Amino acid sequence: MGGARDVGWVAAGLVLGAGACYCIYRLTRGPRRGGRRLRPSRSAEDLTDGSYDDILNAEQLKKLLYLLESTDDPVITEKALVTLGNNAAFSTNQAIIRELGGIPIVGNKINSLNQSIKEKALNALNNLSVNVENQTKIKIYVPQVCEDVFADPLNSAVQLAGLRLLTNMTVTNDYQHLLSGSVAGLFHLLLLGNGSTKVQVLKLLLNLSENPAMTEGLLSVQVSRLPTRFISAHIQRF
Ligand SMILES: *[C@@H]1O[C@H](CO)[C@@H](O)[C@H](O)[C@H]1NC(C)=O
Ligand SMILES: *[C@@H]1O[C@H](CO)[C@@H](O)[C@H](O)[C@H]1NC(C)=O
Ligand SMILES: *[C@@H]1O[C@H](CO)[C@@H](O)[C@H](O)[C@H]1NC(C)=O
Ligand SMILES: *[C@@H]1O[C@H](CO)[C@@H](O)[C@H](O)[C@H]1NC(C)=O
Ligand SMILES: *[C@@H]1O[C@H](CO)[C@@H](O)[C@H](O)[C@H]1NC(C)=O
Ligand SMILES: CC(=O)N[C@H]1CO[C@H](CO)[C@@H](O)[C@@H]1O
Question: Which keywords annotate this record (predicted)?
């Protein structure tokens, strides 16, 4: 399969190269005029132009991933991530994106210094994480997302996206241990965050609290790190 797949990637690159040039042409020359263009299928920039709501097929997803990997343009990156995220809402696409090696391509974008791109990457990973098999690939990003969530601006969209991803990565007990060092920080966010942040942190803590292996960590935080006022206000709701 490797050989055929490599050929596929090269072909996608060629199609996409042509598409990208055309995109620049369109940006510099304004709207497309009439005339016939030979295009084997929808080009990648069509796939990200927001008007394309259909479910993409494997070939189109491949182009989109290639685009994501090769572009430096933040606007195209963001649109590609949103389109991928929307497509990742469908279970067949979750498998296809994973099989095309798409998870690391999306995952690398959480390193983006652009908060908007980082948020879209987290959202796309979150949709991909609904697939339990995909979670085995997404788990490597969990420690970083944990760190980031505490470094992000309080109540920001990117922070919420990170918390959502962590929540969905803890629906099973498999990766909860990856969060064991973050429990105190989560309680801190619960204390400081606004309503949206609090709700998301509570969902996450609730998942952790159902895992006997995590209970000790949760309890030690309650006892040693938090003001009693805070404990009575929040913990008892559990
Ligand atoms: C971040 O990405 C957004 C959306 O693509 C873009 O509009 C914005 O200019 C970028 N910001 C920076 C600082 O590059
Ligand atoms: C993720 O999937 C939901 C549907 O389950 C969809 O509403 C959302 O827009 C998708 N996209 C992203 C980027 O999260
Ligand atoms: C995340 O998990 C919740 C609860 O299990 C689920 O309803 C949702 O569809 C999942 N996916 C996303 C993208 O939020
Ligand atoms: C985590 O919470 C979700 C709902 O948000 C639930 O479906 C799931 O069973 C929970 N998982 C654990 C291990 O508690
Ligand atoms: C929390 O703060 C964010 C960012 O300021 C805002 O978008 C959101 O609506 C707030 N949520 C609540 C419940 O106040
Ligand atoms: C839940 C889900 O979508 N599971 C999929 C995970 O990936 C395998 C292999 O691609 C699919 O067969 C499962 O349906």
Answer: Endoplasmic reticulum, Growth regulation, Membrane, Mitochondrion, Mitochondrion outer membrane, Phosphoprotein, Transmembrane, Transmembrane helix
pTM: 0.73
Q: Give the ligand at the shortest distance from the Cα of 205.
A: 4
Segments in the chain below pLDDT 70: 1-54, 217, 219-238
Ligand 5 contacts CB of residue 153 (under 6 A): no
- Residue (of 51, 45, 50) closest to 68 by Cα position: 45
The closest residue, in CA terms, to atom 5 on ligand 4 is: 203
Instruction: Report the mean per-residue pLDDT for the chain.
Output: 77
Looking up tokens 């090269």 gives: 10
Ligand 5 binding pocket includes 155 (Cβ within 6 Å): yes
Residue 45 contacts by C-beta under 8 Å, 6 or more apart in sequence?
19, 20, 22, 23, 26, 67, 76
Q: What is the DSSP letter of 153?
A: P
Centre of ligand 5 to C-alpha 157, Å, is: 9
Question: What's the pLDDT tens digit per position in 45-85?
Answer: 666 655 455 678 899 999 999 999 999 999 999 999 999 99
Q: Is 19 in the pocket of ligand 2 (CB under 6 A)?
A: no
Nearest-ligand number for the alpha carbon of 133? 6
Cβ 163 vs Cβ 152: under 8 Å: no
- Kindly report the CATH number that applies to the domain delimited by 38-138: 1.25.10.10
